[in-house]
Amino acid sequence: TLVQSTLTMVSRLLGFARDVAISAVMGAGPVSDAFVAAQRFPNLFRRLFAEGAFAQAFVPLYAKAAAAGSSKDADRLASEALSFILAVTVILTIVAEVAMPWIMAVIFVGYRDSPETFKMAVLLTQITMPYLVCMTLAALFSGVLNAVGKFALAAFAPTLLNLCLLVTLWPLYHSHTADVVIAVLEFILQRKVDWPLMDSHVAAYAGAIAISVAGVLQAALLWYGARRSGLHLRLLPPRLSPDVKKIVALAIPGAIAGGATQINIMISQTLSSLEVGASTYLYNADRLYQLPLGLVGVAVGLALLPRLARAVRADDGAAGKNAQDEAVVLSMALTLPAAMALMVMPYLLIAGFFQRGHFTAHDAELTASALRHFAWGVPAFVLAKVLAPAFFAREDMRRPMKYALISVGVNAVLG
User: Fold this and answer.
1) If DSSP codes are grouped into helix, strand and coil, which group holds residue 355?
2) Are 354 and 23 a contacting pair, CB within 8 Å?
3) Could you say which DSSP state residue 111 is in?
4) What is the pLDDT of residues 7-44, one digit of tens each?
């Protein structure tokens, strides 16, 4: 947990710097709302399809194969899983690229009557979609590393996304450096770049390209780490082998169970697109309440899952119970003070992090209002991440899926 949390903290600090750059260059308006939408869609599928569901289904099965002492069986399982999920995500990405105008008409509904902003959101999302394919590879390599008890490289990899966006966006905060980025964009997009509000438009397109580049770098780094740990992967013709069928059977309900928070965020973002700037306010508030969720909930959950899987395999109920109890106590000891801080001083935090450039004091006030109400839900968000591995280690995905569906239904109705 310490390794995961420390490196996640480094990534989140760089992520805050990235979001400060986004807010300073784009402000809170149509351009930033389009960029947020472009990030949300591939990120939703990444967390549902690659990270969440795949990791929760793959890690226990791979851990069992590795614990049985057969590296050949473990390599075969990883190769079959990689080949199948890679084929599925490539097909999904191609379909999404073609159907993006219709998809955005649903998730970016508030801007359907603003053709220029709507078209921008469509193109930005098409540029970022390849990130999903890269994250599929990264998720498998991360799962392999986590299953053998190596958490550092997988926890460090998200830092590359923040670094790519920072390197791309910070120069645009100073308008005289934008000319270089504009020239590169004209070459990549194969058309003349001639927008009003030049810096914010350029930043949005440059940021979208940086996201896909970061995905390639993350996948390459984690592949290197998995190779160093002894994994020997082969790309096979994708097929539903018995092991892959088992992963799919676990992953589908696991996608819903593990991704409930992300689905709820997507619903909120879709509804908030009806108000100019609201998507950006929720996005920035989301960045702050996700900090304890990532540093504590996700970190403890990732460390807990292989330990519980080994306890279940050994039929050691006492070890599993002790691990779960320790995880709950540790996570709440760290989360409750963080939640109180977010509830008591949201404006101080938002103004300190984001109020600069095009992001005004009024924007900070509205973002702080959202953050205050996210804050009292933080302990529950964290507990959901810590309690879910108890089900996943036992390959029980259906009950968490039912609870998640109730959560999504309540959120949609109240929204």
Assistant:
1) coil
2) yes
3) G
4) 878 887 888 788 777 877 777 778 888 888 888 777 77
